[in-house]
Amino acid sequence: MIEIDDLADVPHHLDVVAERIWTAWWRDKGHGIERITTPLRESLERRSIPFTLVAHRNGTFCGTVSVIASDVAERPELTPWIAALWIEPDLRRRGLGAALLHHAVRRAAGFGTAQLYLYASDERRAFYEGRGWRALGIPAPEPEMTILTLAVA
What CATH number corresponds to the domain at position 109? Predict the structure, then answer.
């Protein structure tokens, strides 16, 4: 059975979470892994936001998602954001991404969040729209990307 916990409850997964996020989105842009490890360590402080969730089974990392203050520097007024949803390749298309997303949305709502945002590639947009997310209708700073929103209240 796959469990979903706060990274603060399973801190031994911090290094693998950082490595997956860095490899998927930051390494090829020339950033060091500390760009990820530093904010992830903030997740360990158990404040409301930011937080990171980890899916794991029998001690093995399966996936992750974070809720952060901002994912698009050009839009600081939009907050908070779902970020870095990652599922291990051999576990994809089995509902784990949807489960992590659902847990993140519920937890953010529990902290009083009424609206969430995320930044998705056109390739991934349908996944989120199938779960109630809608395009915000403002230009995204990168081509082939869309800013999506979800009312959680």
Answer: 3.40.630.30
